[in-house]
Design the sequence.
């Protein structure tokens, strides 16, 4: 077995690999960019080597620097994680040439499956179902349009070396095919250094199902069941589960056997994932093979009891698989939510900055797991992807797994940046998701106008008001106990209060009960019992005898309550104070309609207009790059450009002015 391995990655996956390596008694080496010098994976490693500036193309993507780090530290093997160089054939081959073992498949398998065009041809030879499409390299946008018309819309435009939703577009007409080809090629060139693009038919009513395989160097190949990955936004997975509520045993077996056949066809060794698109009629077609560990591998680990990272290390060290296909039996259900640094209420735009508060839910063996690579006080950088953590919950049934996920999301505290936790919490309440009947179009169909605050509806707003009143009353009761008050002038605490929340008044009566307060709003009564104290962000207790978990905190004169993704900021005051406040004039917000503001921090790649230009609604105004994704800003109305304020190449902050209109 190896004595020391280097992890050629960063963030949560680097930390994840290190945990297993340490469990196995293997020393670890971290590599890091200048932006990551204080990151968690650097602190966790036994040794760490700086490999360059923040930009990944100058650090994490530079093969020579990784090899030099191996030589300097004596690392015998390299685990690539996912992303970066994990599916780079040259990286695998050059490590081998330098006497360093790649903890993953051999370079020839990476080459065969890493190119989507070549892998599709190999899949056809291995008698794996494939989607109709054009598998040769496409020269330009005009040719892309002609090919798309020949296949028939809708079509999927994909970068040959793409992954993670980058370099992928769905086109429904000639215009989208033309623009999509250029966008895919640009993203692929920037992210992977390979701008080849191909086109295939887009399957109607699709499910995204993937089969996890593991193979050793002795010809043993096993599939570890499937993962349901259909809940996606912009072709990027949002949450995953295993097993799939859509797949039956016969389809599972057929897909698994085809995945194994494909792996054997390229003499595959290590963990890998064969992705399929499954139509509404349960016909399934090969999409691609990811020759690496997947982001969503924990759900497979939770239902099979295997440690995929440990298996990868053991296979790379020349060991055989410790089980056969007959030994793999599903145990319960697992769901993973990706917790990303993005604002779901602003089109999921990236959110960067300091993690002022970061308190993941408590891990519970076999029930709640948190894979993360950040810590409180750390910084979310604009240079890398937006993932903060992966929250994985397991249950005996799908309903139990969902219930545990709801509670875990309620207890997940993030402050200082925005996160997609409200969106994940909303999904856990969505009737269609709960039914298990959905496709990859789920998010687009359920939230056609984007995700907005009104999509997060709490079924009992009176409870939120009661909790705000609980917080206020506990604060007042603490305040009246301060010593040194003048006799006869002590504050007398009344029981009648008004909670102002989201433009509505909630008159409540608050009376002490053992361990808490009874809050009455109209005909509703909430007996809240908890030992919650100020400074604690998570409120645990009971409401009318039923356990409850949520977030409650005092912010100046406001009380923030977060429950099931719903967040409110409430003001709690006496009835007389509420009447006085209603008489105060309201200040109107400034008119910003004549400015194009940057919706996120990022790099201004392009300004598409000039001063004096007449612009039509829907026309491209600017392109901002953040977290390895291009974001196109378009005009909402017909307008005329008065002044271009920001220049291409400039680093933008949130709400910085880019263009002024007349």
Sequence:
């Amino acid at each position: 077995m190896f004595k020391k391995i280097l992890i050629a990655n960063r963030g949560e996956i680097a930390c994840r690999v290190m945990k297993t390596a340490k469990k196995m008694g293997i020393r670890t080496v971290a590599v890091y960019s200048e932006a990551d010098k204080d990151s968690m994976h650097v602190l966790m490693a036994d040794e760490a080597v700086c490999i360059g500036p923040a930009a990944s193309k100058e650090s994490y993507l530079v093969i020579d620097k990784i090899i030099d780090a191996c030589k300097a530290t004596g690392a015998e093997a390299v685990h690539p994680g996912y992303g970066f160089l994990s599916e780079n054939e040259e990286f695998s081959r050059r490590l081998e040439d330098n006497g360093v073992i790649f903890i993953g498949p051999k370079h020839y398998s990476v080459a065969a499956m890493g190119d989507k065009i070549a892998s599709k041809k190999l899949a056809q030879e291995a008698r794996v179902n494939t989607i109709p499409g054009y598998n040769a390299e496409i020269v330009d946008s005009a040719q892309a349009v002609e090919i798309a018309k020949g296949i028939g819309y809708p079509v999927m435009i994909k970068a040959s070396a793409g992954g993670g939703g980058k370099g992928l577009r769905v086109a429904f007409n000639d215009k989208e095919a033309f623009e999509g080809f250029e966008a895919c090629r640009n993203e692929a060139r920037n992210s992977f250094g390979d701008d080849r693009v191909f086109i295939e038919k887009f399957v109607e009513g699709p499910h995204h199902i993937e089969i996890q395989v593991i193979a050793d160097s002795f010809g043993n190949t096993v599939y570890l069941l499937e993962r349901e990955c259909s809940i996606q936004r912009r072709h990027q997975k949002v949450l995953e589960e295993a097993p799939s509520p859509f797949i039956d045993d016969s389809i599972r077996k057929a897909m698994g056997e085809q995945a194994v056949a494909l792996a054997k066809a390229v003499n595959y060794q290590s963990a890998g994932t064969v992705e399929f698109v499954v139509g509404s009629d349960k016909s399934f077609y090969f999409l691609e093979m990811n020759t690496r560990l997947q982001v969503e591998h924990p759900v497979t680990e939770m239902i099979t009891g295997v440690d995929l990272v440990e298996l990868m290390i053991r296979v790379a060290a020349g060991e055989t698989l410790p089980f056969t296909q007959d030994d793999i039996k599903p145990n319960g259900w697992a769901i993973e939510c990706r917790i990303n640094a993005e604002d779901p209420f602003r089109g999921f735009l990236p959110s960067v900055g300091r993690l002022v508060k970061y308190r993941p839910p408590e891990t519970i063996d076999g029930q709640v797991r948190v894979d993360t690579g950040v810590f409180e006080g750390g910084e979310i950088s604009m240079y890398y992807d937006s993932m903060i953590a992966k929250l994985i919950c397991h249950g005996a049934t799908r309903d139990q797994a969902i219930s545990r996920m709801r509670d875990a999301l309620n207890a997940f505290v993030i402050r200082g940046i925005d996160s997609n936790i409200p969106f994940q919490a909303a999904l856990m309440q969505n009737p269609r998701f709960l039914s298990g009947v959905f496709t990859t179009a789920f998010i687009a169909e359920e939230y056609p106008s984007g995700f907005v605050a009104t999509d997060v509806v709490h079924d009992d707003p009176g409870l939120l008001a009661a909790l705000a009143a609980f917080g206020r009353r506990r604060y007042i009761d603490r305040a009246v106990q301060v010593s040194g008050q003048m006799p006869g002038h002590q504050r007398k605490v009344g029981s009648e209060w008004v909670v102002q929340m989201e433009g509505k008044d909630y008159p409540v009566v608050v009376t002490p009960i053992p361990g808490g307060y009874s809050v009455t709003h109209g005909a509703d009564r909430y007996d809240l019992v908890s030992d919650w104290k100020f400074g604690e962000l998570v409120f645990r207790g009971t409401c009318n005898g039923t356990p409850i978990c949520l977030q409650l905190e005092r912010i100046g004169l406001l009380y923030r309550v977060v429950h099931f993704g719903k967040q409110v900021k409430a003001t709690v005051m006496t009835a007389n104070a509420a009447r006085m406040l209603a008489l105060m004039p309201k200040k109107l917000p400034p008119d910003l309609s004549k400015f194009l503001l940057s919706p996120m921090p990022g790099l201004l790649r392009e300004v598409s207009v000039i001063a004096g230009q007449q612009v039509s609604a829907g026309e491209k105004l600017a392109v901002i790059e953040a977290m390895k994704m291009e974001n196109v800003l378009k005009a909402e109305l017909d307008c005329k450009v008065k002044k271009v304020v920001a220049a291409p190449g400039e680093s933008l902050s949130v709400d910085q002015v880019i263009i002024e209109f007349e």
User: Anything to note?
Assistant: The two ends are 69 Å apart (CA to CA). The longest strand covers residues 504-513. The mean pLDDT is 92. The chain has 17 helices and 41 strands.
